[in-house]
Amino acid sequence: MSTVYDCKRPDSRETGLAAAANAVRAGGLVVLPTDTVYGIGADAFDSTAVGSLLAAKGRGRDMPVPVLVGSWSTVDGLVLSVPRQARALIEAFWPGGLSLILPQAPSLAWDLGDTRGTVNLRMPLHPVALDLLREVGPMAVSSANSTGHPPAATAEQAREQFGDAVSVYLESGPAQDAVASTIVDLTQAQPRMLRAGAVSAAEVSEVLGVEVTSE
C-alpha cells in the first residue's frame, strides 16, 4: 500500500520525508514535489529501481531518466568534468528550472537507460525535494505521469496514475509553475537547447555569452 504525506504540515512533512528516504533506500519509488512539476523518483544508483520507474511510466530505455541533486558540489562526482560553461549556468540558475546534459563519470555504477555516456542533471528549487535529495543523494527523477498523460500538478494526480506502484507520495500543494525545465546539452563545443522550458534561450545565451542553438 502506498501512503500520501501532507508536507504542508510540519509533523507530516518530517514523517513523510523519513518514509520517502526509507522507501528510496529500499529500492522503492516515490513521488515528490519540485519547482516545475511533480516527479517520480528512485535511487539513481539502483538499476532495478530505475527500471521500475521506467516501467511505471511506460517508457523504454531509449528515454533515460534525468538525475536530481541536492547541491552544486554533488555534480563533481557524477560527471567527467564540469566545464566553464556548466559552472556559469549552475551559478546562474541552480537551484531552478535548468537541466544540463554533460558527459558522465565513466566510473559510475548506474543504469539510467540508454544515455550514451551522458547524464541529465538538475538541482530543483523546492525545499521538500532538496531535503530528500540531501538525505538520500542523487535520485533518478522523471515527471510524474505515465506516457501520454500530462505531468501531475499534485501528488494526488500522480497517485491516480501510479497507484501502489509508488510507495510514498509527498504532497506539497499544486505545482506553482507547471512548466518543465529547460534542457541544455553541453556535450559538444556548441551548447544546444534540447527543450525550451522554465529558463529562456535568451537567459541562457546571456550567461554563456554565445547564442544557444536549438534542435
From TrEMBL:
GO biological process: regulation of translational fidelity; tRNA processing
An MF annotation (GO) of this entry: tRNA binding
Organism annotation: Haloactinomyces albus
Top EC class of this enzyme: transferase
Span of the signal peptide: none
Pfam family, one: Sua5_yciO_yrdC
The protein, known as: L-threonylcarbamoyladenylate synthase
Main location: cytoplasm
Stretches assigned to the YrdC-like domain: 14-199
EC number: 2.7.7.87
GO terms for cellular component: cytoplasm
Family membership: Belongs to the SUA5 family.
Keywords: ATP-binding, Cytoplasm, Nucleotide-binding, Nucleotidyltransferase, Transferase, tRNA processing
Lineage of the organism: Bacteria, Bacillati, Actinomycetota, Actinomycetes, Actinopolysporales
InterPro entries recorded: DHBP_synth_RibB-like_a/b_dom, Sua5-like_dom, TC-AMP_synthase_SUA5
Catalytic reaction annotation: L-threonine + hydrogencarbonate + ATP = L-threonylcarbamoyladenylate + diphosphate + H2O
Subcellular location: Cytoplasm
